[in-house]
Amino acid sequence: MSRTRDHAEEILTSPWLLIAAILLGFFWMLGSVPLYDLDEGAFTEATREMLASGNYITPHKDGEPRYDKPVLIYWLQAASVKLLGLNELALRLPSALAATAWLMALWLFVREHLDSRTATVAAIVMALTLEVSLIAKAAVADAVLNLFLALTFFEIYRWYINPERGTLLRVYLWMGFGFLTKGPVAVFFPVIVSFLFFLSEGCLKGWLRAVVHGWGWALFLAVALPWYIAIYLDNGTGFFESFFLHHNLGRFGSAIHGHRGFFGYYFVMLPLIMLPFTGWFLRLLPVLKRAWADPLDRFLWLWFTAVFVVFSLSQTKLPHYMLYGATPLFILMARHRELLASRWLAFTPPVLFFLLLLFLPEILGMVAGQTDKPHELAMLEMGEAWLDSSYRMAVALGLLVVLVLAFWPRLRPWQGLLLVGLVQMAVVSGVLVPRVMEILQGPVKEAARLARELDMPTVVYRTSMPSFSVYRQAITPDRDPRPGDLVFLRVDKLDNLAVWYPRLKQELVFRRGAVALVKVTAVQSGG
Question: Closest Cα to residue 145, out of 334, 312, 270, 325?
């Protein structure tokens, strides 16, 4: 039995399995599903307009300045589109590459401070964690930000071990790139966590010397400041007022874009984010007090806890915010993998997840009976068609494999979970996500391509789906419709359009799922 388990560990900590996990988690199906709204549509439309206008300083979305994020993600997406053309693969590739670099930074750090097998386990867990994979395949800024956050934190700990000037300069370098990616969050958490860690070590004088390091701040400003000056010269104070006051400080005092959650939101979301490794993570909690005595464990727990507490206090809550503090969890789980002895704790979360997927059609049927909104009913009807027998068979097969792995006595629980991660990723990326995205976004993409073929003046009416403009390859202004316009809108807005514009005659050109295209002309006066 011991020899078999050793052989299993050798296979499950091999570079080949790590490569397979990266390909499956970050690159498989990368360009095969439509862009999702609101986030991917907004980022990628800003990138498309940047390329079309030649203005590489101020991002615009549908002709209006987009002040939500700094510029680095748009530059990276623009470079990818220049090489590969305007398509989903090109727009998402920077995120996949950033996630790969994030994973390799983790692997190198863990190998340096622990050992290569632990490093490989931590990296595989990261690649196969549900939320990490979703962000790695999304054309948004978060994979890039997580890369620079991880690099910053790793250099902080390296500087604690060996306080060399070059290491400290790299801390400021990565914070500079993070600041160019998503602003103050790239500085806030490293400063707070490093303060708490050095305070716990009784080394506050060393921390203060590092925080006021002149050359470090000079390097930080050399990376981040030029673009901030450029956008001020291009747009005045608009970006600073919107981004820093509204999109940063405002998120803590109020919910942005309706993303409100209760105080315990992340107690509920974290187990879902960590699937299929939820039980593995929970097993760490009873030994937290003991882990405090080890400097590396303490540093990692402070990193996670700071993120968890800060975002729990914030009024704006989104699941992917927890990824800013997930990197240390992957390391802790790998380092203490032998603590996971209970198969029930290990495998119950993924089994429940697969059961949820298996009965998803029935759940959608129940939801359909509780709503009368036309766009929701339309999507639920599409869901019934797409979540067909082939979907059920694939999910049932995945569930069967998970159950076999759960009760395979020759595999330790953590080893079985690594294999469950591969199964979960295959089902989610290959079966679930393509169907969900076809339901949600397939009609938007189809409508945009039809609008492009019709080549008519096109406007959007009370509908925020910027991927429509990406696929139409043109700005779609949000203004009052005029005779001769093509109007893109959600189907629940059709009656409202007729009420507010009675002098316009509507001709339904396209309707599928939740969206429609309407051609409007002037009503002929009688006489």
Answer: 325
pTM, 2 dp: 0.94
Give the per-residue pLDDT at 30: 95
Q: Distance between CA atoms of 405 and 347, rounded to whole angstroms? A: 9
Q: Which residues contact 79 (CB under 8 A, 6 or more apart)?
A: 94
| Cβ proximity of 475 and 448 under 8 Å | no
What's residue 245's pLDDT?
Answer: 67
Q: Are the CB atoms for 251 and 188 separated by under 8 Å?
A: no
Phi, psi dihedral angles at 489 (to 5 degrees): -160, 165
Neighbours of 372 (CB within 10 A): 9
Is residue 171 within 8 Å of 152, Cβ to Cβ?
yes
Q: Rounded to an integer, what distance in angstroms lies between the CA atom of residue 456 and that of residue 517? A: 12
Residue 364 in contact with residue 383, Cβ under 8 Å? Answer: yes
**pLDDT mean values, one per 10 residues, the chain (527 residues):** 64 91 96 94 97 95 91 97 97 98 98 96 98 97 97 98 95 97 95 96 92 95 95 86 66 53 83 96 89 93 96 85 96 96 96 96 83 78 85 96 94 96 96 93 96 96 95 94 95 91 92 94 70
The closest of 337, 332, 311, 315 to 323, measured between CA atoms, is 311
Distance between CA atoms of residues 2 and 337, nearest Å: 17
What per-residue string of b and e applies to 193-224 under the rule 16 or more CB within 10 Å gives b?
bbbbbbeeeeeeeebeebeebeebeebbeebb
* Integer CA distances (angstroms), 494 to 213, 370, 480, 481, 498, in order: 60, 22, 14, 13, 7
Long-range contact list for 16-23, CB < 8 A, 24+ apart? 17/120, 17/124, 17/418, 18/107, 18/120, 18/123, 18/124, 18/127, 20/422, 21/123, 21/124, 21/127, 21/128, 21/421, 21/422, 21/425, 22/100, 22/103, 22/127
Measured at the CA of 337, the angle between CA 334 and CA 340, to 5 degrees, comes to 145
Output the CA–CA distances (angstroms, integers) from residue 53 to 60, 63, 75, 402, in the order listed: 9, 10, 13, 50
Q: How many CA atoms lie within 13 A of 497 on its CB side?
A: 29
Measured CA to CA, the distance from residue 61 to residue 507 in angstroms comes to 28
Give the distance from CA 198 to its chain's centroid: 31
Contact 145, 73 (CB under 8 A): no
Q: What pLDDT, on a 0 to 100 scale, did the predictor assign at position 6? A: 65
Q: Tell me what pLDDT residue 385 has.
A: 81
- Residues whose CB is less than 8 angstroms from the CB of residue 345 and which lie 6 or more positions away in sequence, other chains included: 279, 282, 283, 413
Name the phi and psi angles at 339, rounded to 5.
-65, -25
First-last CA distance in the chain: 94
The two structure tokens encoding residue 125? 């867990």
Token pair of 477 as six digits:
């202004």
What SS3 state is found at 388? coil
